[in-house]
Amino acid sequence: MTWKLPSPQVRELIRQCAQIVVTARPEWLEELDEAVLAASPVIAADPELAGAVSRSNRANLFFWGAANVRDPGAPVPPNTGPEPLSIAREMVRRGITGFPLDAYRVGEGVAWRRLMEIAFELTSDPEQLHELLDVCSRSISAFVDATLSGIAAQIELERDELTRGTHAERRETVALILDGAPIPRQRAETRLGYALTGAHTAAVIWTERPDSDLVRLDRAAEAFGVTRPLSLLASVATRWVWTPGTVDVAALGEHIRADPDIRIAIGPTADGVDGFRRSHFDALTTQHMMARLHSPQQIATFTEIELVALITADADRAAAFVSRVLGDFELASTELQETVRVFVDEQCNASRAAARLYTHRNTLLRRLARADELLPRPLAESTVDVAVALDVVHWRGQTNPRG
């Protein structure tokens, strides 16, 4: 199809419009992310995929805008940069193929609505508006189509790569075990190079910066457990790991302290093939909770977060529960909140709590009195609810604390 450039007046309007798009307001970008992720809760629950989608949204918006600043109204080539292509890679490695199309169409709708608002702010001339919206509509649609074609081609390349070699065999074997398929244990062990007897502890290890040195992920995986663990490349920036027996969580935390963007979600230790499977799924549940709450914690175990994961499955209701139970205490200092957490954990024994906090008993009692001033109901009347609410706050982090 021959692409006809618009009139000089409309080209100038497109340039102004594109300049606004290039410097999009943060709330516009947040709206775009929310709409795209809402189309797939599975993607939204995965911190790596959600981050990749957000980066891709911004990259595509900037790509289209920058192209129209340079040459207003001209055809925009597909964006085949690292952001959209990383989406293709992650989709294939997770066995998801339908999301990119849906996501890009949802994103296209949100961007188009914003662009129409901008257009009506730039001119009220009906002829110019008609030409401006017609050109931009065709431009955005063609850009999205071409970019999706590039992603589809990348998906085929990634799928071909993952269906060859040892990694594919190990991944297939793990998938069969996780699906409960009747694969003989000895055959699975030979493929994996890992014994499925005895106890297992699983983990999901990932980074929030997939553009960083990913060797750090492999080092973290190797440090998981005493013996050499089974590590599987779940995606570019995520490792699924299993180790025989238990894990020294404190030592693991020391190992990754220098890499604050690395996160580890750990399942409970369990026996046999069923334990291999169950520990992994619980590790995934832990990861999803950390992602859902944007947790600042580097390491979480399923044992620690099981109740919080259940409560925060509905994020809005969980936030309402925390606000109702804690009131002003929700924004109290970490020190004050931790004092109450430890006090409750020690069955409300002030002496034991003070010893655990390495503080004087009178200091602890003053902090508890301050907590009662901030709580809607006295701690003695709402101990369980306060303890649960503080657990949610602990895992999600907090802002604007006050003493």
UniProtKB/TrEMBL annotation:
Domain (CdaR GGDEF-like) ranges: 186-288
InterPro entries for this protein: CdaR-like_regulators, CdaR_GGDEF, PucR_C-HTH_dom, PucR_C-HTH_sf
Pfam hit, one: HTH_30
Gene3D superfamilies with a match to the protein in the record: PucR C-terminal helix-turn-helix domain (1.10.10.2840)
Domain of life: Bacteria
All copies of domain PucR C-terminal helix-turn-helix, residue ranges: 336-390
Family in the record: Belongs to the CdaR family.
Name this protein carries in UniProt: Transcriptional regulator
Naturally occurring in which organism (per UniProt): Mycobacterium dioxanotrophicus
